[in-house]
Amino acid sequence: MPLAICATPIGNLDDVTLRVLGELREADVVLCEDTRRTRILLDRHEISARLTSYHRHNEAARTAQILPRLEAGERIALVSDAGLPGLNDPGARLIAAALDHGLPVTVLPGPSAVETALVASGLGAERYQFLGYLPRGERALAALWEELARWPHAAVAFESPQRIGRSLAALSRVMPERRVAVCRELTKRFEEIVRGKAADVAERFVEPPKGEITVVLGPAPGEVDPSGEQEGVSAVAELVAAGVGRRAAADLVARLTGLPRNTLYRSSL
């Protein structure tokens, strides 16, 4: 049986897929980042399963223990606390080891905080960069913002509630006009998405908020290649043809792509 990498809800427990529920029911063992968190999900969907911890502190030892069981044909599922294992969560080591040993691995996709935040922000387009967790050190964080100052696409990162205020303040010092969205508690009851210029959004988070946070950084204004500008102009034209006002269409496309609104408006005339 292949090692099954199972995506789990990032908040709302009903977001789990039918395939994942089926796999968790049939698994001989479910490897999970926190057995208590996974048990809540299983209880919600009336699933009884044998759980074994698999987290950053025991990842190496557990991988060595699990490989022989996979080779023996056991059905093993891997989950993290939320989202897809292996992406900023434990799992990459086991996946790589299984593949190195010629063992099959299958991925059961599902909820993603990165893509959910990107779409909800209104800042995403065709390309984006995932940054993982933002650096803790002030110099490393400042260096990252400087690096992204000319990045012409969206960027997505995770940040802790305790550090989000500091990170936004550092961003506003380098790029106060950069569009940003702070997505808090995605898919949960108290979901909140704060959008605006970096300097303005930073003022909203002087005090640490509660919950899990995903940050979306909009494209750098003015750093766009000619082909991207032409695509933006075409998008404005299509919206106008559909009945949207030209200025409103230019404003919408500008927010989604980072292209200058005035350029889009004039070029679409």
Layout of helices and strands, plus pairs?
Blueprint: E1 3-6, H1 18-26, E2 29-32, H2 35-44, E3 51-53, H3 59-71, E4 76-79, H4 92-100, E5 105-108, H5 113-121, E6 128-133, H6 138-148, E7 154-159, H7 164-174, E8 179-184, E9 192-197, H8 198-204, E10 213-217, H9 226-241, H10 246-257, H11 261-267
Helix pairs in contact: 3-4, 6-7, 7-8, 9-10, 10-11
List its traits:
elongated, alpha/beta, five-stranded mixed sheet, 42% helix, 269 residues, five-stranded parallel sheet, 3 domains, single chain
Explain this structure:
With 269 residues, the protein is an alpha/beta fold. It has three domains: 3-108, Cobalt-precorrin-4 Transmethylase, domain 1 (3-Layer(aba) Sandwich); 113-217, Tetrapyrrole methylase, C-terminal domain (Methyltransferase, Cobalt-precorrin-4 Transmethylase, Domain 2); 226-267. 42% of the residues lie in helices and 18% in strands. It has helices spanning 18-26, 35-44, 59-71, 92-100, 113-121, 138-148, 164-174, 198-204, 226-241, 246-257, 261-267; strands at 3-6, 29-32, 51-53, 76-79, 105-108, 128-133, 154-159, 179-184, 192-197, 213-217. The strands form two sheets. A five-stranded parallel sheet has the order 3-2-4-1-5, sandwiched between helices. Strands 6-7-10-8-9 form a five-stranded mixed sheet, with helices on both faces. Strand 6 (128-133), helix 6 and strand 7 form a beta-alpha-beta unit. Helix 6 (138-148) packs across helix 7 (164-174), helix 9 (226-241) packs antiparallel against helix 10 (246-257) and helix 10 packs across helix 11 (261-267).
